Amino acid sequence: MTGIGSLPGTDPAEAAAIVFGELPEFAHLPELPGRGPEAALVGRGAALLAELPVEIQPSGWRLTARPGRDLRRARDHLQRDLDAVQESGDYDGAFKIQVCGPLTLAASLELPNGHRAVSDPGATREIAESLAEGVRAHVAEVAARLPRAGLVLQVDEPSVPAVLGARVPTPSGLDTVRAVPASTVETLLGLVVAEAPGPCAVHCCAPDAPLGLFRAAGATALAVDVDSLDAAALDALGEALDAGCSAWLGVVPTGPGLSRPDAKGLVERARRVWNVLGFAVEDLARRAVLTPACGLAGFAPDEARRALTSLRQAGQRLLET
User: What is the pTM of this model?
Assistant: First the structure.
């Protein structure tokens, strides 16, 4: 069982202690967006770009000619997070690194003229190639800091459905960017997935997540929100499992106002999905990983810890049955 990435709070040492304490067999590098945009999904992704500096404008992150304070702050946050996990001890379990995917990054970053980078095919490819290079270096640094850990990569692509469906807005908000072809999305996502040091999960909790495309791009695991799976998504997830992929089942609801099941409830939620997929229940513990549906940054600190505790206990229940 593992987390998706983000946690509440601003203290990297405290976040690392929670992750290693509650998820001792499958920990992850915590993300703390409460520190500001430089520590959130897009800011962290921008910090990994090789030779593509960015800055914060009133409208969001924008590609720029030279690195400045915003990029330095984003990279400083990342280094402090890495320091915190390294100081947590000689960890020898599975360890997950989360990165913003290339299409989500291109849909979020602005060109110098204010348009989204995804509106320019050349810029979109350049971002994907730069991100792949940065992820390669990031993986190498984590491997050097945690030499006994088994590294896993998670690529977060929440914006891929909008990119494919021509739903990324233009600067005026009166129009949208032309859809990016599925073949291009697959190729560019594949550049980053290829940098995985071992297993690679692509995470998207949107109802229309293109799970087949993610698998075609090289993902060995698909991370989904179990509450968003319609018939088509269930079929795609079943096909991926048949092909040897694993399923990361987001069984902890993360939307506002939703109840948080205890360990028994999480196991029941996972088993219901597994039964619909038609796989033997004894394979659930071996072929699935239980996770929150999305990040936990919107939770209160105690609630986030309880959610991870419930996940760990749910995993123990699955192994015992």
Answer: 0.96
pLDDT, one tens digit per residue, over 33-59 is 999 999 999 999 999 999 999 999 999
H-helix or E-strand spanning residue 144: helix 121-145
* Contact of 82 with 136, CB cutoff 8 Å: no
* Cα gap 123→52, rounded to integer Å: 10
Angle (CA) 220-45-188 rounded to 5° is 50
Enumerate residues 6+ apart whose C-beta is below 8 A from 272: none
Q: Which residue is it, tokens 């995993």? A: 315
Which stretch of DSSP H or E encloses residue 202? strand 200-203
Residues in contact with 250: Cβ distance below 8 Å, sequence separation at least 6, in sequence order: 4, 205, 223, 224, 225, 226, 227, 291, 292, 293, 294
Residue 215 is given by DSSP the state H
